[in-house]
Amino acid sequence: MTTLNKVFHLTDAHTTVKRELIAALTTFVSLSYILFVNPNLLYAAGMPKGAAFTVTAIATAIGCFIMGLVANYPVALAPTLGSGAFFAYNVCVGMHIKWQTALAAVLVASILFILITVFKLREKVVDAIPQDLKHAISAGIGLFIAFIGLQNGKLIVNSDSTLVTLGKFNSPAVWITLFGLILTVILMAMQVPGSIFIGMVVTAIFGILIGQIPLPTHIISSAPNIAPTFGQAVIHLKDINTPQLFMVVLTFLLVTFFDTAGTLIGMTEQAGMVDKNGKIPRIGRAFLSDSTAMVEGAVLGTAPLGTSVESSAGIAMGGRTGLTAVFIGIFFIISMIFSPLLAVIPTTVTAPALIIVGVLMAGNLKKIHWEKFEIALPAFLTVVGMPLTYSISDGLALGMIAYPITMIASKQYKKVTPMMYILFIIFIIFETVKFYV
């Protein structure tokens, strides 16, 4: 305990090993779906699904270890679904680029990511963002997380006429989600410790009892070999030699830059790590951790890693230090041999946790100066932009583009830092580049 306290400063963070462990379990259970979703995305790109499963587990574990030990942050680094979908469907399927070459593009973007981190450009960007927009980013991520939870739980479904609509209550998936949501709400209202995690466990049992979640056929299985994907990014670096691939590299870089920046701001806001001046401690180390994790992920053979929004579930359970991230990494290593057990945790089980966490993060809305229109508009666009565009980076873009415009129009242009003007231009370029890729 003394050693752990010395390494992770548990006492200073007002936390304990038990609390960090519960937080890690909560995040892991919320994030475990990535072990199955990410391999499916990579398989669509042509990669072997078995190797993709093992790579997902190893890359996530290493990313979490780096984040926990280097930055001492209670957040997980894992392959992000947005980048994974872009990798598979836009680059490999849409552009007919081999997955080996796409991995090389990820590696190049990752190396550039490290360079701009070392020169502290990312820190300067985060420090330049006004506090009101930081609150909006956190709240926007909360709404985004809740929206994902509502979708995963089938409470909200696709609609041809209205885009989304209420799910059908005769669906067993909805029963499981509603059971978990009601139970977790009751536990939260009663202030029961570990309520989100308890809710997920009991919900999984409920799903098994009603015959909607199958029991695993066996408990332990060997992890598939990663030889088919390992090192392919390095071997195919020579393939990055066309304007089209340079554009792919740039898009990977921009998407991961702003997705990670926005998510880290949201997570640190939620964890109460931001000081009174709006500064985030050790943010440089956190940025170096995620950019390094991107490199190791590319070499192993997966789409870009980034800060996981599911980390908010563990933070809500009291995770405050890197020990949470280290525990998460250990769970992902263990998951490689106990993968059959993860089948009892479908997205309908984790959906209530995401919805509840979304509610908690939306509390940052009260900190925004809504009475000032020049602040309210960009904040609002940031908040609603994330769930409605299904992208943290696009939500950020809307707010960052609107902010200088409203501040100039209200004759407060002197309050806008030079970096915010630069971001204004970058985000316009960012959205334009995405349109043409």
Short description:
The protein is mostly helical and 437 residues long. Helix content is 67%, strand content 3%. A two-stranded antiparallel sheet has the order 1-4. Strands 2-3 form a two-stranded antiparallel ribbon.
Return Rg in Å: 21 Å
How far is the first residue's CA from the last residue's CA?
51 Å
Q: What is the number of helices?
A: 19
Structural class: mainly alpha
Could you estimate the helical fraction of the residues in percent?
A: 55-70%
Describe the sheet with the most strands.
Answer: 2 strands, antiparallel
Strand content: under 5%
- Please mark out the parts with pLDDT under 50 across 5 or more consecutive residues, or reply none: none
Shape: globular
| Mean pLDDT across all amino acids | 88
Query: Major sheet: order of its strands?
Result: 1-4
